[in-house]
Amino acid sequence: MASIAKLSVRGVRSFSPNDDEQVIGFCFPLTIIVGANGCGKTTIIESLKYAVTGSLPPGNKSGQSFVHDPRSMGQTSVKASIKLRFNNTQGLSMVVARSMEVTQKKTSASFKALDGTIRTVDKETGERVTMSHKCSELDKSIPIYLGVSKPILEHVVFCHQEDASWPLQEGAVLKKRFDDIFDSTRYAKALEAIKAERKNYASMVKDLKADLQGLNSHKHAATGFREELEDCKDKISGMDDKIKNSNDEIETEMVTVQETQKVLGKIDEFKEDLDYKRSDMETQEAVYEKQKELLGKDDLTEKHSYQELKDMLRELSDERHGNEATRLLESKELTLTDIERMVERLRRKTNELNSRKGKLEAEQDAHSNVLRTRFKVMEEVHRKHHVEFDTITQDDDDDALTQGTTASRMSLSTIFTTTTSNTNVITKEDMEAFQQGVDTKNNELRGRFNTAKKDHRKEEDAMQKEILELQAKKAAVDNDRKRNESAKTQAMRELTQISSQMSSSLSRVRKGDVEEAKHQAAQLAESRDEMNKHPRREETTKEIRVLEDKLKSIAATIEQDTKIREQLRLRSDEQNEIDMLERQVTQEYDVLTDLLSDNSFLISSQGENIRVTKEDPIAPVEVLHNNVRSKMLDAQDEVNRFNTAVGDIQKKVSEKNALLGSHRHRFQNLQLKKTALARPDGGVQKIKSVIKAIVRFDKETIDVGRINDDTSPTEVLKYIAEQVAGCSIHEEKPEHIARLIKRMKKMARNEMACPCCTKTFDGDDDINNFYTRMNELADPDVSELHAMANKNAQKVREAIDNYEKWRRIISENINEHLEFARVVEELKEVETIIGEEEGGGHGSLKDLESELKTEEATLTEKKDLLNELQTLMTTVNGIQDTAKRVWEKMGNVKEKKAKLKYQFLGNVDDPRDLKTVEKDLTKSSDQKEVAYTNINKLNNEQKQLNEKISRITNQAATAERSAREKEDAYKRDQESTKRKDELNDELKKLTAHDKEFDKQILPIRTQLMQRESDRDRMRDANAQEDGMLGDQLKDFERDMDKLKEVNEKIDQYIRSKKDNEIDEVDQKLLHNAEDIRGGEEKITEMKPELENLKKQVEDGERQKKTIQDNLGLFKLEKKVNQLQDDIKKLQGEVDAMGGDTAREQHQVAASNIRQHQSKIERYNGRMQGLTEQKRNLRKKLNEPEYKGVDDRQRMKMIEHETTNIVVTDLDKYYDALDKALLRYHGMKISDINKIIRELWALTYKGEDITNIEIQSGQDSGSRANRSYNYRIVMSKGNTQMDMRGRCSAGQRVLASIVIRLALAETFCLNCGVMALDEPTTNLDYENKRGLGCALAQIIASRAAQSNFQLVVITHDEDFVSMMKQELSSQTGFTMPERYYQVSREESNDGRFYSKISAVDWDDL
Q1: Average pLDDT over the chain, rounded to an integer
Q2: What residue spans of 386-427 are helical by DSSP H?
Q3: Got the DSSP string for 645-664?
Q4: How many other C-beta atoms can be found within 10 angstroms of the C-beta atom of residue 59?
Q5: Percentages helix, strand, coil for the chain, rounded to the nearest 5?
Q6: Is 1359 exposed, middle or buried (0-12, 13-18, 19+ CB in 10 A)?
Q7: Alpha-carbon distances, residue 454 vs 460, 1022, 1023 (angstroms)
Q8: In sequence order, what are the beta bridge partners of 30?
Q9: Which residues pair with 393 in a beta bridge?
Q10: Which distant-in-sequence residues (6+ apart) come within 8 Å of 753 by Cβ?
């Protein structure tokens, strides 16, 4: 069975990363951790959860905020570690360690989870074994060691406080959580996977059957191919024997061929060598002749021998002879190079010195400018500020700035007005005298300025004193009026509140209604009492009471024995602590009275009065606090109401302004758009021009008059279409004329008369004339009809072209014209709207602005009143805190005195020893356990009876509550009527007081305004005078600062001694110039000597080259003679080898070989056919359908049969798993709901919800796709409804805890750990007590389990006391010796970090 033993934390959240690890040990079966808000309690749950699952807390997905912030410590990175010691399901102790690091970058922080470790002890060797794991591996392995799934650890065992109400979250979240807990998704996927596999295997069976049939046919064909292949192999074997015999004959002849080839090969090698040497000899002879020709006169081979020439070359190469000139040349060249380098260095140095000299001269010029600037500044000071003093002037020559011997005393004005004086010569004595004059002037200006300010301050103080007296009188009257107004406002508010709270005449409760409700409640209560008188109910109650009395006796014995185990300790410390607390009480009481005395005027100004005593300092302060708080809240409501009103009006004004601005912007845009559309080259103007052209054209042609300037473009397009169609119909074409004349000829022949004038033809002449005339009319060249038709056709075409052109222009620009018309209409509409919005009617902008000013003035008055009350409230809060401290310390003194008086009374002289007491404690605990088991049985029996009478009890409670509410409503109406009359009388008195205050304040206000006006005029005059004197002083000081800055520059230049440095640079330049001239003279002298040495060296080299060429000529001649001797020797060896006989033998053997090869080729031709046949058979057998067909047919048959079996097995597995999942899910839901019912009845003390449970519905009827929709429902009577959205915050918290406890009871069989973080959030006293009872019973029932651990983290010490009491009195359970307290304490670095400490229960 798994359990947790110890947790250590460092660097997480508010835990210090530098101090020692904070350690907490987990007890069996209960560990309680308490601490104030923000001290780091929840960090323990987060650390436990991270240690076992690796999951970060909610809202910390990236992890930066989970580790201590590096910025708070001034570091770039912080490391954190969490270690957890636990026992796995096998009872083996293990330690998991996880580390994290947060690095602070420039604008962000990065989180990194480091590799973790698991440490355990080897069972066989007893040594520690440490294994390093990646984070993902740890996340998987730790839940396995604990025997609990990761979802249970995250959402049930170590559930975060922010995530504690997940059972009542939205459906999708709840479904995901429960699916993870039940592993529904995994098993649903398994069913889907089985179904998909079954489908795949069924399809495979069909494919395998078809494949097997094909393999059977291929196997039969392959057998025939193998028989043909064996026959072919036999024939090929016979051919191989014949070819082998012919090859043997060929080998015999080949021996002869090889022997003759060797002889012939040697002969050929000798001939090739002979040819090579002949060619080489010819080449060497040609080189020899060419070299001899090149030497010409320098050819010494005929005069000197080879040895003589060699001796001559040795003499020339001797160092003492040939190299002396070379060594001298090299020495001279090195000397010349050194001189040139020295000259170059001197030139660079000269350039540097010239540059330095230029800088120094520039600084000297700048110094002269500064001296002139100083003189000008002094002159300006004298002129502006009239500084006078006597000084000594000095005359000097030209640029000598500090020299001069003639001294005469004159005034400063003489110096500055004399044109002949040198501006650069100001001596030290002159400057000292000038500074004395400046100091005198400065003191004079500052004295005048300070005297003026002092006089002005006295005048203003006198005037201010008079104003303060008048303001005090006005403030006194204003305060009286404000108090009167406050009382009046309070009375009005109370009167309004009473009127709003009083029921209307129709819904007001009558006395008869109260009596009727009481009667009905009494009847229901009587029915409930009858139900409660069930005999077994009383019997079980008595039995439980007897057992509880027995438990109390046992608990008292256990408690007494436990106290006896403890030693009398810290008695003197307790007394000292009491004395110190009494002194603190006296000091705090004095502080309280001082505060009340200091703030008595502020308190009385709001109509409050307070008097405290040392016996009860808290009650009067509480009354004062409540009264002031009530007034402040009322004032806050008024301010909020007026703020809302002002905000609404401002919003309306803003909306009006925005709407008006939008309309104006829209009006401007429309005007711009209208102007753009109406431009001269735009579509609108084009259409207008076209319409005018059409009107003119129609007047000139048909004069229809349908079109005018106001006709719309659409109508114009219709008109153009009609005109074009009409023109096309009336167009006269040449073919039309020809057909008409032809018809007229035919009519004339038939009727013997003219078709036009009906004149009868007398004979053939008339007909012929008629035909001639018709032919003339039909001829296009001479016919008048054709000419007239052409003229009309030309006019029609021109009209059609014009209409088409106009239609094209209108069609292209009609959209712009329509847009122009729309813009004109919209402009009219917007102009009307703007006129209405800017008007002064109701709801207009002017009306809203006027209303806004009125509301803002009222809001300012309300805010002033609220500020006064808030100031008073702050003061009263400080007084209340002081009074509470006095009262709490007085209570602590009384409690400690009583505790000290009765502590260890009667137990000091107990005769038993420690072992006897421990044995008695064990015996008492066993008795307590037996009694508790019996009580549980009786409680279950009584619970069943209680469920039967729950409905009638709820009805009776509802009726009693209704009766009480009606009675209370009746009493409130009576009291409200009486109070309303009293308030009306009080309002009349307060209104009369207001009028008196107005009469008193009028003369005071007039005098105050007059004196304030006088004071303002005096301040303006004084400020003007002070400003003038101050400006003079500041102007003088600025000039002095400017002069000081110039003097500092002059002194700095004199200290640098730059004049001496210029002389030094000039001396160095002179020396460098002399050295450069000397070096250049040496270079000029050495150049002729170097030229002579170079010529001598070149002559010696040329002689050596001539002798070396003659020696080479001797060597060539010797080589040519040697090659001639070798050629003669080789020719003799070739003649002695006998090459003709060997060549005849070689030809005979080659002829025999060719005959045998011819036979082999014939045999090979036959065998090639057999081989081809064999290859084709093998190729067929190697084809995919025949290769390994026997094995494949056998394997395919086995695969077909086994796959068929797999399909059958998958069907069985699917059905079995589906049924098992249904059964498992139903059993688990049933078990969980059973536990939930028991815990809910035990913990929830309300009467509206009788039970809650988890329900799951099935989305689909398909078994393979089953999923569940989980929801939490509550039962109210016989009705079930969703709990989400219909329960209070406390009910939600309690339901979530009960569901988590039930899930832990069901799923945590291998790990009995359960952690509750702040379980009492939003719970009232009764439900808090019920939760304590339930947890006590769970602890008692599972305390026998060796691994059961409940960890409760809370700030509610009352809840801890309840659990302690329940565990001690009802269940007989002994609390752990200590609980853990988390607090924020100051560390050595001055920062506050979370600390964990173990505390005895007695100190709770």
Answers
A1: 77
A2: 412-417
A3: HHHHHHHHHHHHHHHHHHHH
A4: 11
A5: 75, 10, 20
A6: buried
A7: 10, 11, 12
A8: 1350
A9: 408
A10: 759, 760, 761
d(CA 406, CA 401): 14
Asked if 1270 contacts 175 with a C-beta cutoff of 8 angstroms, the reply is yes
**Separation CA 411–CA 399 (nearest Å):** 24
- Cα separation of 893 and 890, whole Å? 5
- Looking at the DSSP bridge assignments, the partners of residue 1313 are 1349
Q: Could you report the per-residue pLDDT of 436-482, keeping only the tens digit for each?
A: 788 888 888 888 888 888 888 888 888 888 888 888 887 888 888 78
By DSSP bridging, strand 3-10 and strand 1279-1282 are unpaired
Q: What is the pLDDT of residue 1049?
A: 77
pLDDT in tens, 218-266: 777 777 777 778 878 887 888 788 888 888 888 887 888 787 777 777 7
The one-letter amino acid at 580: M
Judged by phi (left if over 0) then psi (alpha if -120 to 50, else beta), residue 305 lies in beta
Which residues does 446 contact at the CB level (< 8 Å), separation at least 6? 1033
The Cα-based distances of 881 to 1, 588, 621, 884, 886 in angstroms read 52, 10, 10, 5, 9
Mean pLDDT of the region 623-639: 83
118 has which bridge partners? 96, 131
The rounded distance, in Å, linking the Cα atoms of 1332 and 1358 is 10
Q: Which residues pair with 1395 in a beta bridge?
A: 1383
Residue 393 confidence (pLDDT): 43
Residue type, 165: S
Tokens representing 1317 are 């973080």
SS3 1351: strand
Q: Taking Cα atoms as reference points, which of 1325, 1321, 1324 lies closest to residue 159? A: 1321
pLDDT score, position 83: 92
DSSP notation for 1071-1090: HHHHHHHHHHHHHHHHHHHH
Can you say whether the dihedral through the CA atoms of 347, 349, 353, 356 is positive or negative?
Answer: positive
Query: Closest Cα partner for 862 from 606, 639, 634?
Result: 639
């975060």: which residue's tokens? Answer: 160
Q: What confidence score (pLDDT) does residue 97 get?
A: 92
Q: Is the preceding peptide bond at 29 cis, omega within 30 degrees of 0? A: yes
Contact 1314, 164 (CB under 8 A): no
Residue reference for tokens 């853990």: 1380
Burial class (CB in 10 A: 0-12, 13-18, 19+), 843: exposed
Going by the DSSP 8-state scheme, the letter that residue 1311 receives in this structure is B
Count CB atoms within 10 A of the CB of residue 1031: 11
Q: What single letter denotes the amino acid at residue 1355?
A: H
For residue range 887-914, list pLDDT tens digits in order.
Answer: 887 888 787 777 766 654 444 455 665 5
Calculate Rg over the CA atoms of the chain: 63
Which residues 6+ apart lie within 8 Å of 833 measured at CB?
Answer: 663
pTM: 0.37
Identify the top-confidence range among 147-156, 387-396, 1157-1166.
147-156
DSSP states along 579-595: HHHHHHHHHHHHHHHHH
Burial of 1065 by CB count in 10 Å (0-12 exposed, 13-18 middle, 19+ buried)?
buried
Amino acid, single-letter form, for residue 536: R
The answer to whether residues 1053 and 360 touch, using CB atoms and an 8 Å cutoff, is no
Q: In what order do the strands lie in the sheet with 1378-1386?
A: 1313-1317, 1349-1354, 30-35, 1378-1386, 1392-1400
Map residue 9 onto helix, strand or coil: strand
Helices (H) and strands (E) in the chain, counts: 29, 17
Please compute, for residue 1397, the number of CA atoms within 13 A of its CA located in the half-sphere on the CB side. 13
pLDDT at res. 222: 78
Q: How many other β-carbons are positioned within 10 Å of the β-carbon of residue 191?
A: 19
Amino acid letter for position 1133: E
